[in-house]
Amino acid sequence: MKRIADVDLNGKTVFVRADLNVPFNDKGQIADDTRIRAALDTVKHALDAGAAVIVASHLGRPKGERKEELSLKPVAARMSELLGLKVGFAEDCVGPETSEAASELKPGEVLLLENLRFHKEETENNDDFAKQLASLADCYVNDAFGTAHRAHASTAGIVNHVACSAAGILLQKELDFFAKAFEDPKRPVAAIFGGAKISTKLAAIKNTAKHADKILIGGAMANTFFAADELPVGASLYEAELLDTAREVRKYAQSQNCELLLPTDVIVGSEFSSKAETKVVNVDSIPDGWMALDIGPRTITTFVEALSNCATIVWNGPMGAFEMEPFANGTYAIVDALAGSSGLTVVGGGDTDLALHERRAVEKMSYVSTGGGAFLELLEGKTLPAVAALDK
What we know:
Elements: E1 13-17, H1 34-48, E2 52-56, H2 73-83, E3 87-89, H3 96-103, E4 110-112, H4 120-123, H5 127-134, E5 139-142, E6 164-167, H6 169-182, E7 189-193, H7 202-209, E8 214-217, H8 221-228, H9 243-255, E9 259-261, E10 265-269, E11 278-282, E12 291-295, H10 297-308, E13 312-316, H11 329-339, E14 344-348, H12 350-358, E15 367-368, H13 372-379, H14 385-391
Parallel strand pairs: 1-2, 1-5, 2-4, 3-4, 5-6, 7-8, 7-13, 8-9, 13-14, 14-15
Antiparallel strand pairs: 10-11, 10-12
Helix pairs in contact: 1-2, 7-13, 8-9, 10-11
């Protein structure tokens, strides 16, 4: 797979597929421009190399319909501010007017296309649509790690219709850090999984057991393991249909010489509310009607100690309902442990990312992934369709 640095871009028009799927507040303003900033290194590289740059992205899920609230026009304005140059905006991503705007683009100029998903052909990976996108430029660069697990027209199909293609700086950085953590890691290696459901991370946990020395499990997914051990879980969220699977996962981890650490105590709440009555109980003593909503203090101590000697740590998913203050200690303790680690720390997942921001610890991580679904599929051992397309 070529990197953008391997391609001569001088005098060429470059199509950069970025992930500019940013959140907006209720006033229609960009609430967080992290993804826009993350895309700028590749855009700047292409500009410095003497290229004209066309940037394309999706925003939200318009399902093939034009929806003004999902227009990328505000993103063009923010990109202009961050780049310090005027970013042009095309009212569509294909069509005669877009083709004309692309053909008139000069080296050093940037054009942002309207939301790709205003056309259903994008998510259908329609070949004619991919060909139309490809016709706008001389070279294709994929820098959208957040959509790399989707075989869409702008991430996979377009590669079949361009003379050259390469990975952007962000995409390559994501893959490089993941390789450091999984392919040839410094040991010991620890992986931390949290969140609500074991079903969404089952494949990732099993695949990780082949690579890690220890796996720490928190969040509501731990409740399924408790139930599998026939412990009372009260009103806690768990997946009754996956009890046998949970037992199999534990057995599989043992077969891979991977230590699986589960909570030994939890914070329970009388209801799912920040105003709930709370108490600390052992995992075998969750009362009827109460919900396990965070790992307990003894578990925090155990988990932090388990991480203290690790040279590589990968984390996906919070330890509890950290959005409510009474149940935030477990997640924040893991954030603090990674922030103080001298090892390689790679973090992915939207909720986990939010916890890092709240703790002001983003800069203290070795790398924070920009793609939740793509990051999880890498943990599962899958080949990402967009990366496979570039490999071709």
